[in-house]
Specification:
The chain is an alpha+beta fold. Helix content is about 30%, strand content about 25%. A hairpin with a 6-residue loop joins strand 8 and strand 9. The longest helix has 17 residues.
Length: about 290
């Protein structure tokens, strides 16, 4: 078996800047990836199959066609190879939670299929496959901090980020992204002006405080528990700024380093899904709460 992690996507800010003719909203966001992750494993097989495991697997049990299988079929068709693989998805990230869990799983499937089948698609073709699977999949395929534009699929370089810690918390209430967009009130705002980078987490937090998640109010209207999560995150010792990620209900708080984030995550209610640690690639281990396997 070979394995690919599917890291949680965190929108440090999310502005709605317009709407396309087809109804999709145009966004401006800075996305980073936490070490919190699902794990996708796969091995060669005659047909496609997917086994589910992990503390969040039950939420996917009734899905007729998981994004992992859709990604694998799309990759096989583009590559001109038979779609044969036995996948095992260990689900750690909560479903419908604003941190791109399904999109990260699909992106992991594209990367794993390339390795498993020994096929290297042209970058433009792979990006097109990712975009067809979902607007967050291209960013998750990149797996590094990115500036997201368009409907989320237009990627550009992110400013240089300092070492920092993140706490993620979800009240265990799924929130449907289309419903949040339908409930959003207000107009559009211009894209954010960002510096080339930040020296430390405090500087990043100061700039983030002047930005927003334009979906937050609508999500709270649909899921009032988000307001409590934000309040609890803001009150954690060492928290620099707290905000909702994506369309919710997962929220995050920014800390000076992964160790501070791990300690703070342990103070949140055990009935929530909670996690604390660093950014993917930073080498720090996260603390998963009771619902996330610790």
């Amino acid at each position: 078996m070979i394995a690919e992690p599917a890291y949680a996507k965190v929108n440090l800010f999310l502005h709605v800047v317009g709407r396309r003719a087809d109804g999709y909203h145009l966004l401006d966001s800075l996305a980073v990836f936490a070490e919190a992750a699902d794990l996708l494993e796969g091995e060669a097989a005659e047909t496609l199959s997917l086994a589910l495991a992990g503390p969040e697997a039950a939420a996917l049990a009734e899905e007729a066609d998981n994004l992992v299988l859709r990604a694998a079929r799309a990759f096989a068709e583009a590559a001109g190879v038979p779609p044969g693989a036995a996948f095992r998805l260990t689900k750690i990230l909560p479903v419908a939670s604003g941190i791109g869990g399904g999109s990260a799983d699909a992106a992991a499937a594209l990367r794993l299929c390339a390795r498993l089948w020994g096929v290297r698609l042209p970058p433009a073709r792979l990006a097109a496959l990712a975009g067809a699977l979902g607007s967050d999949v291209p960013a998750c395929l990149a797996g590094r901090p990115v500036r997201m534009g368009g409907a989320g699929e237009v990627l550009s370089a992110a400013p240089a980020l300092p070492r920092l810690g993140l706490v993620l918390a979800n009240p265990r209430v799924p929130v449907a992204t289309p419903a949040v967009f339908r409930s959003r009130a207000g107009g559009f705002r211009p894209p954010a002006a960002l510096p080339p980078g930040w020296a430390d987490a405090a500087a990043l937090a100061r700039d983030l405080a002047a930005l927003a998640n334009d979906l937050e109010a609508a999500a709270i209207g649909l899921c009032p528990a988000i307001a409590e999560v934000l309040e609890r995150l803001s009150a954690l010792p060492g928290a620099r700024v707290a905000r909702m990620s994506g369309s919710g209900a997962t929220c995050f708080a920014l800390f000076d380093d992964p160790d501070a984030a791990r300690a703070a995550a342990a103070l949140l209610p055990a009935s929530w899904w909670r996690w604390g640690g660093g950014l993917a690639g930073g080498g720090a281990r996260g603390l998963s709460g009771s619902a996330a396997g610790a």
